[in-house]
Specification:
Blueprint: H1 2-8, E1 11-16, E2 21-26, H2 30-45, H3 56-62, E3 76-81, H4 87-94, E4 102-106, E5 109-113, H5 125-132, E6 136-140, H6 141-157, E7 170-171
Helix pairs in contact: 3-6
């Protein structure tokens, strides 16, 4: 995966566990990266899957923004949506009762507090994508904190400014 994405134009590509977590640098916009990654995966592996990207700064803000206060972190899940979703669908989705679980939506992230375990949830990633009509990906607390840490390390390796291509680069 790393060599495929580097060949496609991303810089300093690294992966974390084998579930589609990639950290890389690029001078491209979020939308351009999502299209590039989608195309590279489809061409090289045959998968027609959506790619969702965030800058390191955006990603690192997700976990601290969870609205549930002090809770058992193994009960926290974070669904990152490709876009915020249509307001009417988001309103309908967030207005439903998911008891005993809790959800909160902030911009393009759905925060979930599981009462038991993720596999018992009434709203898994497939349901979210279907109800909101958008691509999304869900990660647990441990994966999110590790990815935030790795993105911070990668972002701090080089000083802000120009990449080898002469264009500004960000860590995604």
């Amino acid at each position: 995966m790393c060599s495929v994405l580097e060949d496609a134009g991303l810089i300093e590509v690294q992966t974390y566990i084998q579930s589609g977590n990639v950290i890389a640098k690029s001078h491209l916009s979020r939308d351009e990266i999502q299209k590039l990654v989608h195309r590279a995966i489809k061409q090289n592996f045959g998968g027609d899957i959506a790619a969702i990207s965030r800058t390191a700064k955006e990603f690192q803000a997700i976990v601290p923004a969870h609205p549930f206060g002090k809770v058992a972190t193994e009960k926290l899940y974070f669904t990152i949506m490709q876009s915020p979703g249509k307001p009417a669908l988001v309103k309908e989705f967030s207005g439903r009762d998911y008891s005993p679980d809790q959800i909160r939506i902030k911009k393009d992230v759905i925060y979930t507090l599981c009462a038991t375990k993720y596999s018992d949830l009434k709203i898994n990633n497939n349901v979210i994508e279907r109800k909101l009509g958008i691509a999304a990906t869900t990660r647990n607390y441990n994966t999110m904190t590790k990815l935030a840490e790795l993105s911070q390390i990668t972002a701090s390796k080089t000083k802000p400014g120009k990449s080898a291509t002469g264009k500004s680069s960000k860590t995604y």
